[in-house]
Design goal:
Layout (H helix, E strand, L loop, with lengths): L3 H4 L2 H33 L19 H32 L2 H8 L4 H11 L6 H13 L4 H13 L2 H10 L2 H24 L3 H15 L6 H29 L1 H4 L11 H13 L7 H10 L4 H10 L5 H6 L6 H24 L3
Helix pairs in contact: 2-3, 2-8, 3-6, 3-11, 5-7, 5-9, 6-7, 7-9, 8-9, 9-17, 13-15, 13-17, 14-15, 15-17
């Protein structure tokens, strides 16, 4: 038998495109268009979600965990719903062979395609994670999925615009330059790490999709949507609560004492890699910390590590990539953070 998506895929593809375009317009494009004028006029886009105007986050407690989770949840819930719809739609509405044709190669081309495809999404790392999981189940190459995952936040055009108005063009240029290397370089490395046996299993899985018993595409869409929500949301919520309570441990009291020493740069690179923020949340965080006298080195580290990944997003994608690839991404993001901090000091940003 043939997959029902292959017999007449036009209605399903059209549905996916409409959901993607309408959802991104409502959740991302229009709000960010309006926010750009705020950033240009006021050189700010709000308070730091990490600690507001204070010099340090609140002490670890259930209250601080719930407060952060609620604030963060209000900022991202619409994008998370859209991410789940698109992640399940990739599997149910798009022809699997089309996904592999564009994103299934194990060279630089699929990493480039995945990174470029991420640019209109502009999602935070956790909201992009369901789409990444969907791409992997549709047998997109690891590198294409990694580039898509990282590119959503690191190369987010709106964030770069906000950054230019709020922090200055040199911070935006540093993010863009190192970010492009991160997105496409790690995507390519992930593809090169794919073994022959893994490629064979992906081919077999694609064949299984093509020969599976027919099922209505829309029925399949909602079945996958429910499964993804049950698998991803509980662990995501728990980790956001844990990180919300742990802010004071990850980020000490901010002031001139946090200077450009390499140990501070490394510490903030690790903390930024673990922590979870909404889209563009790093901009007011860095602005607030610099205003309190923190060195540009730790700020440069946060510039490159707060957005791309987080502990919750890595947990959400633990079933989608071999552990060695996720480990590569985690370590590499920390190293990019150290490089960002070192360059911020060297260039006297």
């Amino acid at each position: 038998m043939t997959d029902s998506r292959q017999s007449n895929p036009a209605p399903q593809i059209a549905t996916f495109v409409v959901v993607a375009v309408a959802g991104l317009f409502y959740v991302k494009w229009l709000p960010y268009y309006n926010r750009a004028f705020v950033a240009a006029a006021h050189h700010a886009i709000g308070q730091s979600i990490l600690m507001g105007k204070a010099a340090h986050p609140p002490a670890p407690s259930i209250r601080s965990a719930l407060a952060y989770a609620l604030t963060y949840g209000k900022a991202i819930w619409q994008a998370m719903v859209l991410g789940l719809l698109l992640g399940s739609g990739v599997q149910a509405l798009l022809p699997a062979k089309a996904v592999t044709r564009w994103l299934g190669g194990n060279g630089f081309g699929s990493a480039l395609a995945g990174g470029m495809l991420s640019l209109p999404g502009m999602m935070c790392t956790c909201c992009a994670a369901p789409v990444v999981a969907g791409l992997r189940r549709a047998q997109a190459a690891p590198g294409a999925a990694i580039a898509f995952w990282l590119g959503n936040s690191v190369l987010n055009p709106a964030t770069l615009i906000f950054m230019s108005f709020v922090l200055g063009w040199r911070w935006a240029a540093l993010r863009l330059g190192l970010g492009a290397v991160m997105v496409f370089g790690l995507g390519y490395l992930a593809n090169r790490m794919t073994t022959a046996s893994e490629a064979g299993r992906a081919e077999a899985s694609l064949e299984a999709i093509a020969t599976a018993p027919e099922e209505g595409a829309f029925r399949r869409w909602f079945r996958i949507l429910g499964r993804m929500a049950v698998q991803l949301i509980p662990e995501y919520v728990i980790l956001v609560l844990v990180l919300g309570a742990s802010r004071a441990w990850l980020f000490p009291t901010i002031g001139p004492g946090i200077d450009n020493h390499l140990l501070w740069i490394l510490a903030f690179a690790v903390a930024g890699m673990l922590f979870v923020i909404p889209t563009a949340g790093e901009v007011p965080i860095i602005q607030g910390m610099l205003a309190l006298g923190m060195g540009v080195g730790p700020a440069g580290a946060l510039l490159m590590t707060l957005a791309p990944i987080s502990l919750p997003s890595m947990a959400m994608l633990a079933r989608s990539f071999p552990p060695r690839i996720l480990a590569l991404v985690g370590v590499a993001v920390i190293l990019f953070g150290v490089a960002g901090g070192a360059l911020a000091v060297a260039l006297r940003i």
